[in-house]
Structures are given as C-alpha cells and as structure tokens.
Fold each of these.
Amino acid sequence: MNNLNFFSSELYIMSNNSAKSTDLEYNDSYANQVNEIINTLELDSETDRSILKSRFLSEVVKYEQRKLHTKKYYDRFRFIVTVGSIILPAILSLGQMDPTKLPKNFDQVVYWSSWTISLMVTASNGFLQLFSLDKNYFEYSLTTEQLKTEGWQYFQLSGKYEDDKTHQAAYKDFSKSIENIKRKQVEKEFSGKGDVSKKKKEKPFDFQVELMKNLPDHLKPEKDKGDPDIEHGESKMKEIDLMMNDKIGKLDTLMGMLEKKNTERDGAVGNGTVGNGTVGNGTVGNVREILSDSIKGQILEASDEAVSNAVDKKA
C-alpha cells in the first residue's frame, strides 16, 4: 500500500513537472512575450494597441513562418546538391579500377547510380533557382530580425527611440519604421514582376549651379547678388546696342553699294556729267544721315523705355 502511494505521488509530480515545462515553453515564445509587453504599454487608446498587435506582431509571426517554411525546402535541396556533388566523383572514380577486380555488373551499377545522383543534383539546384529559395530564405530571415530588433528598441525606448520619454511619443516613429521595413521587403520580393511606377527623368547634376545655390550671400560673385530687374535692364541695353550696330552696318553696306553704282555710271558718261555724279553722291550722303538718325532715334526710344520699365519695377 505504501509502495502504491509512493508511486502515485511520483507520477503526480512528474505530470505536474511536464505541465509546467509545457507552459514554460509556450510562454517563452516570442509572440506571447511581445503580446504581454504590448498589453502593459501606456498608450492613449486601445486602437493603437490593436494596431501594434495586428501590424507589427502579426507581421513578425508571418515572416517567421515564411522563413521556417522556406528553410525546410532550402535545407533539403542544398543537402542533396552538396552530398551529391561529393558522392558523384567518388562513384565515377571507382569505374577507373581494374574490371577484373570489380564485382559483376558493377559498371551498370555505377552508370545508373551516377545518372540518378546527377539527375537529383541538377533537379535540386534547378528548384533552388526556380523558386529563389536561397534568396527568399535570406530575405525572410533578415526582415524577421529587423522587425524584432525594431520592436525591442521600441519597447525598451533605446536606440533611435532613446530621446522619447514615453511609448506614445515614439509610437508614430515606430509605425513608420515598421512600414518602411515592410515596404522594402515587398519591393525586393516583387521587383520586376509588377512595377508600374514610372521613373521620373532626373535632370543632370550641375555642380556649378548647386554650388551657387548653397553659397552664402557674402561669398557669391557680384553679378549674382544684383537686382534681377536692373540686370534685366542691362541685358536689354546690350541687346539694343548690338541691334543698333547691326542696323548701322547694314546701312553702310547699302550706301556703299549705291556709291559704287554712281561712280561706275559717272565714269561711263564722261566729264560733262561730273556735276550730276556730284549731286548723286551728295544725295547718297544725305540719305545715309537721314536713315542713321532715324534708326538711332528708334533705338534710343526703345532703350529709354526699357530703362524706365526697370526703374518702375524697382520703385
């Protein structure tokens, strides 16, 4: 009877220890730990608390599951590729031995074994590349650890959140960081598969222009510190001056051609018509003076108008 009681008590203790170990393992999971921490945070509303659970905690759990699921196939295929790459050369090297010392039908065994191993290695490597198992496994692992690290920094108010006094003050920055991590992961996962965004044409970088924009006023050249209206007026004056010189040059060319024609005509007629040639030359000179004065007058009026407009804008 005593032995029976002792056995029952030992069985009860073992069952209790087993239950405690199960509870301890369950409570030590990341999801339960973080869920308890979120419930104790001092937040202004329950909505913020629910968002933390739905958008942060659920994302960590989801990426953790994706990582483990991908890791299962990644490890299997990598194991086949690695082991097969080691065994295949060893099997092929056995075929180089003396046939008399090898078992019967050994060449067929070697052939089919090497063919099978080669097929398995090629297929496994093809599946790895086709489904991007290695890339997805590394990205899921990296994203999971980034989310966990961001979460622990927020809960502890350390790292980038050390300047915030409360969790509510750091709530928006934390949410923004989580969304950035999630967005970068989505862009990596679907890069080149559904990109409908149009890339904006970036203007070529002009070092001189950017340097002038960022220079202090006292370091800028004098021409960059002037009044834009006065500078506009000065540029207009230069344009008018160039136009006047061009008009006068064309007029001189025209008058020269007329004088040349009159001179040729006077030489053909003779001495009796010298007076007429003199009169023609005088007429050409008068026309030059009249046209020159007219052009100069128009250009001066235009220049006065440009200057007066600049002065009015300045006033």
Amino acid sequence: MVLHPAQRQEPWPPGVAPARGFHGLPIPGGRAGSGMPPAASALGWLQGPISKCRESNIEASSLYSSATLRIHELTAEERAVYATLKPERLPEHVAIIMDGNGRWAGHRSLKRFLGHQQGAKSVQLVTETASRIGLPWLTLYAFSLENNLRRPRAEVNFLMRLLRSYLESNLQRMMDNNVRMRYIGRTHELPPEVQDKMAWAAEATARNTGTTLTLALNYGGRSELVDAFRGLAAEMKHTHLSPDRITEEDIHRHLYTAHMPDPDLLIRTSGEMRLSNYLLWQIAYTEIFVTERLWPDFRGIHLLEAIADFQRRERRYGGLGEGSADGSGEVDEEAERLKIAAG
C-alpha cells in the first residue's frame, strides 16, 4: 500500500528546516544547504528511508482523486486536448530535457539571458498544467554538470541568480498549486546562497501533496551512477556484502531518484535526438517524445499533446504486444522454427 504524502510522518520537528541530500530528501543531523550528510550518519540514512521507500517502488506517490483535479483551470485549448486523454492512463512520471533557450533568443537577436528568463516562465506554466491534471511526478533537466563546467562563468552566475529568483517569486504559486519541490544532482557543489534558497523552497512546500516538481541541478547521469556506486561500495564494506550478491535493486537504492518511480515519458524540446547524459539508468523503458519546439515556447498544451502521443503507444517492456502472433499473445514455436530454417 502506497501512502498519500499527507499521511507521511516526517522525521524532523515542525518548523525545523532539514538538510537536503543529492536527491532532495531530508538528512537527519545534516546542515541545511550543505547537500551532504554527516559522514557518521550517511550510511545509516541511506539504508533507512530510501530502502524502505523502494520496497513499494516509490517514496509516496501523489494519489489523486477526481475531487483534487483542477481540469476547470485549464485553458479552453488545453481542455480540448485533455478530453482526448484517458485519465486512468496518464503517465506517473514525466521527465523533460528543456533545450533551446539560447536558440530562442538567437532567433530573435536577443541576449541569451533573455532566453533563459523566458524558459523559466515555461517551467512554471508547464508545472501548473501538470498539477491541474494530477501528474504525480515532473522532473526537469534545469542545469547540467557539463553546463557548470563548460559554460562561460558569467552565464553560469546568471543562471544561479535566475534559480534563486525563480524560487523566490514562484513559491506562492507553487503553494497555490499544491506543488512540492525536490532536487537531484550534485547540489552540494552549488553556491551556498543557492543551496540555502533551494532548502527554503523545499521545506516550505514539503507538506504539499500534489505534483512533485524535481529540478535536476548540477546533474549528470554518469556522475549519478558514480555516486551510486560509491554509496554501494561503502554499504558493501559496512555490511560485508559479496559482489556476486549485488542486484539492480541495490544500485537503484543509491540513485538520486531512489524515492521516485522511473519516468514513463521523456520529452525533449528543440528537436535534438540525444539524451544529453540525463537519467541514463532510469529511462531504460521510457517512451521518448521529441518536439522541434524550443523550450521557451513550450506550454501546458504541448505537455498534454506529448501525453496524448504517449497514450497511443504500446509499452511492451521486452515482451509481446497485444496484437502479436495470432492475436492471443501466444507464439507458435513450431512455425517460428520453420521460419528460421527457411530464412
């Protein structure tokens, strides 16, 4: 049984801001904004709530009833697309690679920072639509590890200021929309003032029970795997776990995303056909939707259109489709052998 977030018992006293780890979960005894647990308690914390959460696949999925949906708040155009959807087949988790801010500005002969500002508006508009239709998890690739290392320092500094400004100016809208904030990535490497603002927004929205908006910040899929392997190695040393006993579940418990389900749908804007080092482990069976639209032009209606495309697909997870073979889902093994022999 998966508990509604409102039923959770938080491990910290009311009004006390917890420190947040790589994936945005509270760390008992950690310093707020540090992004890392004290060395003595890190292993125990990892083996506690994360492993227990994963037993039911997710930490505490937002469970919507029809009474909590706000379809009437959609625009007329959005309602028209939503009317074509099957609410019972909505994806549980949508991840987005938000690409094209710089090109959007370049096409208009504007400075790049104006593209980033317009992209921040898209974040809020798309998040509000997700909240209205009852999407439990929305994860946005906001700032990659490569961005931090390879972009001009002036642009990186601007993006950090924009993040702080976004959290400050949109907190009330997140509260109004029942949105809960989380983060994944090596957030402990971000400037302290940015970490503090992130922790402030996460704590303020911690008891909201709607869409969980996760921002991937200073994030890289390969670095996430390195961090997971390091955590698993520390656990193995502590528990004397034999390498031949390691399972996928053991690795998953140490990912930044251990508290959430894997994405059902990955959206990439700007038409680029690559993953850009995003959620490499998690998207093994994720449906991918690519649009030529640049992120600053992406709105809630485009999220709904992507979901409509998702619902037209058949997810097989390596198995047989409903219309395979003789229509019953069963395969005539003798006929298959004859085909192979004749082939």
Amino acid sequence: MFYYSTNAYIGQCHSLVITAVLALHDQPKYWVTATYRSIFISDVHLGTRDCKAEALNNFLKHNTCETLYLVGDIIDAWKIQRNKWRWKQSHTNVVRRVLGHAKRGTRVVFIAGNHDEFLRPMIPYGIGFGLVEIANQAEHIGRDGRHYLVVHGDMFDGITRVAPWLSWLGDGAYDIVLRLNTRFNWLRRRLGFGYWSLSKYLKHRVKKAVDFMFQFEHNLVSYCRKRGFDGVICGHIHHAEIKTIDGITYMNDGDWVESCTALVEHHDGQWEIVSWTQEKDHVDTDSDSGAHKRRRGHTRPGGDRDAQPRDLSQGREFH
C-alpha cells in the first residue's frame, strides 16, 4: 500500500514537472532590453492618424539609454490648428514611457521642430516639462570625442524658410499620400506581396527634383563647418541615413510615421540606425527576433564616456 502511494506521488510530481516545462516552453519569448549611451528619435507626429505610437512605445520599452534626444516633430501641433487632432491611448502611452525614462535617471532633451514650434517661445525662459529639457538645438559630445550639432533641421529646409505656406500644403498632400499608401499596401497583402512604401517612393522622386534648389543636407553641413562641429544629427525629412559629406558626419534618425527608425550610439562609440517594426511582445520564432533591426553604422574610438550634451539655444544661433 505504501509502495503504491509512493509511486503514485512520484508519478504526480513527474507529471507536474513535465507540465511546468511545457508551459514555460510555450511562453512568448520577450526581447532582452538593450542599453545604449544615447538614443535619437524624431518625427513621431503624436496626434496624427499615421503615427506608429505602438511601435515606438514597444521600442522605448525594450531600449534604454543615458541620454534620450527627441529631435523635433514629436507632437504635431499643425493638426491642432487645422482641427485634425487624432490623439489615441497609444499616444498617451508614449508620453508616459518617455517620462518614465526621465524619472529613472535618463536625461531627456526635447529639440523643438517645425510641427511643435509652439515650444520655441518657452526656450529663452528655461521652461521645461518636469525632468524633460527643451531646446532649439544642442551639442552632443560623442563617445568618440567628436562634437555633434543636434537640431531638427527645419531651419535648413529651403521650403520651410522661403515659403512656409508651401510646407503646410505639402503636409496636407503627405497625409493624402499616406492614406493611399495604407490602402495600396492592404491590396498588396491581399495579393500575397510584401510592404512597399508608395509615399517614400514618391517623396524620393520629388526630392531628386528639388534637391538642387534647397540642398537640405549641404546647408546643414555648411553650417556645421562654420560653427566648428564635427557632425550633425537631425530629422525633418523622414529619411534615416549615416554618411559623410565633405568631411562632416551627417546622421538622420528617420521617423515614426513610416520607417520606425532610431539613431543609437553604443557605449563603444559605434553609431547605428535601428529599424523597429515590432508593436507588441508576441515574438515566438528565432527568425523574427533578428528581423527587426537594420544596421548601418561606423565606429570611432576615443572620447569621454561621461561627456554631457550642452544646450546651444542661448549660445550658438542660426545665421
């Protein structure tokens, strides 16, 4: 009797262990949090229909840093003025996530852009949002010891400076193209094809036609050279890229409307563009876990790891 009871008990324990192991195996595989020296994101356009707030919230959940730069157009105030505000709970979650990073010790610097230019009148008075600093431009000293200008970039856009009304017109046209893009890709998925950005294709075709007039990138590079910077980190044109122009490092962190990209600086000084397409933690295949990043960086040794960014709003001004 005792022998039977003992065997039955052992058998039950064995079954419980097997059940627990199977349950753990069936759990979703969550991503390990990545830590960087600095992260740069821009052109989120919170308050718009096409903002990829879920993806950004997931990115901020799984990536931490010492300094987080919000490089302009985080909030789309233009939509408020035109009464086309589309604020969702996911947008509020992004704000809470950013404030949570600041509360846990991350330095958060908000660089004003043209879509959130309502912040610019506050800058001379040193007004911020709690632990979030607000500036028109800032200087970031990289791990490589090089000095980078951090600015949204709208002041170097010929359209924004010469014909602001054309920017408003272009913003409306961009919204229309994004809606067409959504419907176009829905049809492609139904036909078994992958995602293809119609809006990005049209934008780059137009960009090639007007680059000779406005020279956005070269305007930034020229200013950096005149002010003694080694490179520039910006947003504005929704095109993530790392390259060297006439000896000046040009880095654009992209956007969170289509590309869902961020510029990150590793602790060893390497720069990288990260593409993030994940919105929720439901990854359960090894192939998916490596498919969310796109790396195009370069490493530069040296520099002071503890160097802090410096607000240039009161110092260096645009001319």
